[in-house]
Amino acid sequence: MQQKLEQFKRSKSLKIFDGMPARWPKMKEPGKINVKKILKDLAGEDNIYAIENGVVGFVSGGELFVAPKSSELLAALEDANFEKRSFHIPFANRDLPQGKALKKWERLVREAYAAEAALEATLSPQIVVATA
Question: What is the number of structural domains in the chain?
Answer without folding.
Answer: 1
